[in-house]
Amino acid sequence: MKKLVIASILTATLTAGAALAASHGADPVATRKNGMQGVGLAMGTLAGMAKGEVPFNDKSALAALKLMNYVASTFDQHFPEGSDMAANTTASPKIWEDMDGFKAAVAKLQMDTAAAIEAAPASAEALGPILGSVGGNCKSCHEAFRVKN
Amino acid sequence: MIRKLLAAALLLGVAALAIFWWLTIPATLSEQQRASLVEGDAAAGEAVFWAGGCGSCHAEKSAKGDAKKLLGGGHRLDTPAGVFVTPNISPDPETGIGSWSLEDFANAMWNGVSPGGRHYYPSFPYASYIRMTGEDLSNLFAYLKTLEPVSRANEPHELPLPLKLHRGIGLWKLAFLDGAPVMTDIGEEETLLRGRYLVEGPGHCGECHTPRTVFGFGGMDKSRWLGGGAAPEGDGKIPNITPHEKGLGGWSAGEIAGYLESGFTPEFDSVGGSMVSVQENMAKLTKEDRAAIAAYLKAIPAVGD
Fold it and tell me: Is this model's pTM higher than 0.90 or not?
């Protein structure tokens, strides 16, 4: 049963990652949203393990971090001028007013996830500080650059 | 004949002005309000400070952690009515409120009136703070006095001329300022009553999550309480947080409390925009208080489209 849970989380995570990869170059709004959904799933996987709701598994943890790092590595390329007007986007117009600030926030997510991959967490306890450093990025970027519609 | 008409019109005009003048005289504390004030307990006031979110408007924009306790003001609130520049409420005696009495403070928080007798604009959410208890206000005031004084002179708001006529706010208050609970029939369960107090009073959730009447300039529309609407500041919309399927219908009470603590939704989306500062205040409350807020949000009527 436990194995099944882990496997299904891993599959969901990687499926989201694959969806992201597949949609590359097509619709930029869909691409960036898929990417963020993958990031959300990865974050959920890690938080679940840290809280002991799902058993810790080092391979799933690393896969989750890698997925986030992968999304961050290209995330800012999917914000062409005018794509803040798409009906289904929650990207804030502030992204285009302060593209440098936005790129810096993307770079920070990439750096923090890279450091976490390097650290290769080997237990649920080791995930705590990583959730803090990686997870802090979500809020600070969403505070400045996202708006609900 | 014309003269008589003119005279009558003039008289009516004067009478109307007099009535306007009389109706919009800024209030002072009522006997009942005054009697509910107590000797403040600064330690207990800290929780009131976080529940009330003073640092979200009176500290610098996006201030984090302890920087949220530096209440020098100067934070610009860019609203459709104009730009409000928040005043200094640190205990600095020259530029802040260090020389205020508890009565001055209570009259500002409950009645929206300054020590000099001016009506405050409702961008200062006293339409919610009016529901705070005298004990909480007294404790909050004692706590504010313990914070670091910041020397920063207040700046004028940047508003169109008609809105500079403060007496007009007196009419707004007559129509919309009401200290009664919004959800009058949610029962007597203690958790729900605590949740109601926190949400409708200090937490001032309705100031953002409830649409306003009169083209957005009126009071909070109680028939669509917490049903979401246009953002009071900046772009976008504020989500519906009633138990409707388009709101928090799919969230359990535990998930709502978890969001207020961690900033993550059940789908692991992360909190954003102006809610970040609010969420970080909520994270400072006790678990019981967050659970009470969540229970209230599940108990109120669902608001649809």
Answer: yes
